[in-house]
Amino acid sequence: MKTLYGTQEQPQRIDLPLCPFDAVKMDEAIREIQSLAKSKQYHYVITPNIDHLQRLYLSSDDSSLREIYRQSSLSLCDSRVLKLLMPVIGVSVPEAVPGSTLTCRLFDQLLGPADRILIIGGDRKVIEALREQYCDLDISHINPSMGFIKKPQEVEEIVRATCALNPDYIFIAVGSPQQELLAHRIGTAPCRGVALCVGASLLFMTGQEKRAPDWMQTISCEWLYRMISNPRRLVRRYILNLIYLPGIVNTLRQHGPHTRKIKANG
C-alpha cells in the first residue's frame, strides 16, 4: 500500500435532512479512505449529487434509503453545481469531490501491489483495460446481472464472494441506488475494508466514456458536456433534476443542517 503523508483532523459531517455531506477536500478524502481501508471494520463511501438528492427527496415515504446514506462512513459532494447551491441552504463544503476524479486518484496515487482490490460491476472489456493500465495491482472482479439488486439469491452470492475475497478496497460500479444498497448490504456480513460507490468512474478511466474538458469542469458545466454526449440517457434526467430542485432546496432550508465530527475509525 502506498502511503499518503501528513495529518488530518477528524472530518466534519454536515447532517442534512436528505443525506449528510462531509466537509473535506480531495486530499483529505483520500487520506480518510486509506484510513478506512486499514480498519478492522467495514466502511462504505458515497458520492451524492443532485440526482441522488432527487431520488432521496422522492423517497419521503421510504426512509430506508436515506438511512443507508446516513450510515455511510464518508459522504462526498460529487457535484460542483451542488457545491455552488449549498450556501443557499446555509452550509458549505470546501470543494466538490467528483467520484470520477477521486477514483482515478486512488488508482494513481494510493493503491499498490499489496492491496486486494475488488470491482463489482463493469464488463470484461473495462476490467481488462484496467488490468492493463494498472498491471501491478491485484484486481478481482464480480459482474452482477442486470437487475441483480431485486434478486435476493444473487445479492447473497455477491456478498459471500466479497467476504471470501477479503478485499481492502471495493469499487462498486452498478449505478445508483443499486450500488448504495449493495454497499450497505455487504456491511451486514462479516466483511472488512472500504467500499466506494463509483458509478461510471471506471468507464472514464478506461476511455469508454470521455469526461468534459478541464475548463468545462472548472466552470461547473460538466453536466452540459455529458448531456450533449449522451442526450438519450441524460436529457430527461437533468430536466427532472431541474424540476425537483426547488422542492429539494426548500426541504433542506426548512429543516436546516447541523454539524458533528465523524466518529473515529475502528
Automatic annotation (TrEMBL):
GO MF term (any one): hexosyltransferase activity
InterPro entries: WecG_TagA_CpsF (IPR004629)
Keywords: Glycosyltransferase, Transferase
Any Pfam family matching the protein: Glyco_tran_WecG
CDD domains: Glyco_transf_WecG_TagA
Top-level taxonomic group: Bacteria
Keyword Glycosyltransferase: yes
NCBIfam families assigned to the protein according to its UniProt record, in alphabetical order: wecG_tagA_cpsF
Descriptive protein name: Polymer biosynthesis protein, WecB/TagA/CpsF family
Lineage: Bacteria, Pseudomonadati, Pseudomonadota, Gammaproteobacteria, Cellvibrionales
